[in-house]
Amino acid sequence: MLSVTIEHEAVVRFGGRFGVTFQRTLRVPDDGRVYNLPPGLGTFPLLKVEDYADRVPADWRERGGIFLPLYQREALWLGFQAEDWRPNAVKVGVGGVNAVTGERWDAAFSGRGQDYLVCPPQLWLDGIKTGAGRIRQFVAAPLGQGYTVESQVTGEDIFGGIQIAVFEPRPGLFPDEPPPVPEFEGPLRAAGPGAPPGAQMSPAKLGIAAGGAIEQKIYPDPHGSATWDPENYGIIRVHIVNSEQYREITGRKPPRTPITAKSYTSHGLPWFALYDERAGDIATSERLSRVRSVRQIEAERGEPPNPEDAPIEVSEGQVMRLHPGKKTSGRAKPERQAQAGRKKESKHKPRRKLKEEITMAKKGKKASKGTKASKGAGASDSNEPADLRNIPFCTEISLPSELAGEALTAAVNERADNVLLPGMASGLGMASISMSTAMLDMPAIAVVAKKLWKPGRTLRVRFLDKPDPVIREKIEEYAHEWEQYISVQFAFGSSAKAEIRITCTLGIGSWSYLGTDALLIPAGEPTMNYGWFTEETPDQEFSRTVLHEFGHALGAIHEHQHPEAGIPWNKEAVYRYYKQTQGWSKGDVDAQIFNKYDKTSLNTSVYDRKSIMHYPVPKEMTLGGFQIGWNRVLSAKDKSFMRHIYPSK
After folding, report:
1. What is the residue-wise DSSP string for 334-351?
2. What Cα–Cα distance (Å) separates residue 388 from each residue in 39, 362, 508, 615, 632?
């Protein structure tokens, strides 16, 4: 049997390798049209039944498993973290009904017909299969009222929730260990403050009903049913509870619901489609083809249409086309999330305020021209490749060029060795140490200024807004982790003279000014922002993002722009991705992704692909299968070099 564990309340892990996430998303209109894939808007929190045994329903205790909160009519999709060097077979049930065939749920693997998914190539499942190349979206509905798939297929609501069984391949058919990641020497889809229309609080226990139609295939098994080991598997039962009872059981605030599909689309944000025209699609079962959607049942009962089911127009320019998973070395996991951006250069004007609904879409924002992508989902370690439906990126903020002289003065006043004349570069350090070049009144001499703080310095840190206490506590916790390795200390408080000033404004990305540049930002304005934290954010995402942003505050830049990075970018794919999701020009992409820092203008050490300052690099954006996953903790080089830069006295 495969072990089944829950990681960071965000991922169900089978056998320590295969993972399943439950992704928040838009509810597509049920208007007779077939829509593209909606984005991911972050993961639902996953809690163990056994941890709340004295407060959950008795049948949950008997069946065990996990539970998650949903509003009535809220939608979700399943994301699969799968290895193409060692795939898995996956059976999915909704309320005791197989989501692929409509047969009664059976966790056993029979091998008679394909009642399962193969991951990869199947990377996501958004609903039950109801037609050729089409599914109906998973949406939450109350039990006992005739809405659920289970009640329509079996005539009763007994199980509710979702059931998942994952099977390993038989021994000897695939590698037991991952292939080496290629190394190269040289260049080579947020929640609002309340529920949207139609997202009412529901009876306590929920099941899965059918929503609007989405274009999605269930790919045939490329390996054959004899590949899968019926004795080596893991099972998880997922209970669904309404958000109010979630609060009563856990004492936590329930997640807020996403914005409506209409609002999301009206602001030009991306939807997704797959280049899978040549891929097969298994036959549709008669049982599931007869399942009626929530809207169809309501219409039969004479109920008025829900406003969210009004048709929406998604322009061709809003649809980002992705490649499905492939049988190659390494994982192929196109991502379905885009994150709000941030202007690359500050003009010291009040921060642009997005409309509330878009502020809530913290993982679906399409940045305007001249902004930097910041996309956000749960992070993982560098062995877990980035998923193009879920990446959050930070934006490195630069001062206006006309302030270069003032920035140099501030840096030198802070620390005398922040200035280097030609030939003085020490040759030490990681690409993370940022410098800027300013032409002073010294003919033909370029002065390179680092932006480091004085060793032994105590930097005052202040929150300009009032984030949830949980969020504030986590930011402070992970910021202090840097103090174990450097002589700089962070003093959180309410000082009006704080050098680092934090806001937690959703929807505008996560970003920070670099080192001593913060000294030039007017008092009362933030020098750092966290754009996707909520009370339900997993610890690993707090770790990844806070360590990264405070790295910038200490003077660190993005490691992917290290002069020795040697990432074999597929430039056309990268240009296309950022144009579709962020509206970036080629110049924007060059500046934020491709351009490297001049080695002579950096305190550089060897390139560190494990650095906390490194972007994830999905292999869909590179040549030769090269990829770099999520780095969520400080690397050994991060620690050793920053200790060198900020030595103890």
Report:
1. B---B---EESB--SPPP
2. 10, 16, 19, 13, 17
Boundaries of domain holding 101: 4-169+194-322
CA distance linking residue 281 with residue 218, whole number of Å? 5
Q: Are residues 582 and 613 in the same domain?
A: yes
The 10s digit of each residue's pLDDT in 391-420 is: 556 666 777 767 777 887 888 888 877 764
Does residue 592 register a pLDDT over 50?
yes
Mean local confidence (pLDDT), 632-643: 90
pLDDT, the chain, mean: 78
Cβ count within 10 A of residue 179: 12
Q: How many domains does the chain have?
A: 2
Q: Which two tokens stand for residue 567?
A: 């990432």
Q: 184 versus 457: which is more confidently predicted?
A: 457
Phi, psi of 542 (to 5 degrees): -60, -45
Q: Which of 337, 319, 339 is nearest to 388 (CA)?
A: 337
- Of 81-85, 284-288, 579-583, 614-618, the range with the highest mean pLDDT is 284-288
Q: Are residues 287 and 358 both part of a single domain?
A: no
Give the pLDDT mean for 608-628. Answer: 87
Whether residues 384 and 268 share a domain: the answer is: no
Beta carbons of 619 and 387 less than 8 angstroms apart: no
Question: Which one, of 355, 262, 272, lies nearest residue 313 by Cα?
Answer: 262
Give the distance, in angstroms, between the CA of residue 266 and the centroid of all CA atoms in the same chain.
Answer: 22
Task: With respect to residue 419, please indicate whether it lies within any of the assigned structural domains.
Answer: no
Q: How far apart are CA 86 and CA 492, in angstroms?
A: 47
Instruction: Provide the pairing of β-strand 124-125 with 75-81.
Output: antiparallel
Q: How confident is the model at residue 323 (pLDDT cuts 50, 70, 90)?
A: low
The residue with tokens 């689309």 is 265
Half-sphere exposure of 375 (CA within 13 A, CB side): 26
3-state secondary structure of 142: strand
Q: Are residues 301 and 356 in the same domain?
A: no
Question: Cα–Cα distance between 321 and 560 in angstroms, integer?
Answer: 25
Residues 6+ apart with CB under 8 A from 289: 130, 131
Q: Are residues 239 and 375 in the same domain?
A: no
371 shares a domain with 245: no
Identify the CATH number of the domain in which residue 569 sits. Answer: 3.40.390.10
The residues facing 448 across adjacent strands are 420, 437
What would the mean pLDDT of 441-460 be, rounded to a whole number?
A: 66
Q: Going edge to edge, which strands form the sheet with 446-450?
A: 419-420, 446-450, 435-439
Q: Give the residue, 339 or 244, on which the prediction is more confident.
A: 244
Say whether both 346 and 250 belong to one domain.
no
Q: Which residue has the tokens 């809405």?
A: 147
Report phi then psi at 635, rounded to 5.
-80, 170
pLDDT at residue number 159: 84
Cα–Cα separations (whole angstroms), residue 266 to 32, 197, 319, 605: 20, 16, 13, 46
Size of the chain in residues: 649
Secondary structure of residue 295 in the 3-state scheme: helix
Examine the pLDDT at 347 and tell me if it is beyond 60.
Answer: no
Of 549, 547, 531, the C-alpha closest to 539 is 547
- DSSP class of residue 536 equals T
Beta bridge partners of 491: 460
Has this prediction a pTM greater than 0.90? no
Q: Residue 371 has which token pair? A: 């902004």
Is residue 333 scored above 50 in pLDDT?
A: no
Give the orientation angle of helix 469-479 with respect to helix 539-553, to 10 degrees.
60
Same domain, 258 and 377: no
Last residue in a domain, options 294, 322, 350: 322
**CA–CA distance, 410 with 309 (Å, rounded to integer):** 56
